[in-house]
Design brief:
The chain is built from three helices and no strands. The protein has 71 residues and is an all-alpha fold. It is elongated, with a radius of gyration of 26 Å. The termini are far apart. The mean pLDDT is 78.
Length: 71
């Protein structure tokens, strides 16, 4: 009986944390718009952070053709 009760409590907790029972965003339209913009801007910045981590955003100093250094 206690395992069943513990399982039900764990299930309710997981459902409440997933945003199904308690909504993630505010019901007020103006506040919800601000929250959605903040969320989308944060997700949009991931590509910039990824390029910065791998140093892809820096300009290359290599030439597109081979240059012989000798005379």
């Amino acid at each position: 009986m206690s395992k069943l009760l513990l399982g039900a409590l764990l299930g309710v907790t997981m459902i409440a944390n997933s945003g199904c029972v308690v909504p993630m965003y505010s019901p007020d339209p103006t506040r919800r718009l601000t929250q959605l913009l903040n969320t989308s801007e944060n997700l949009r910045m991931i590509m910039d952070e990824w390029e910065r981590a791998w140093l892809i955003d820096m300009p290359t100093h290599l030439t597109p053709y081979r240059v012989h250094g000798g005379m």
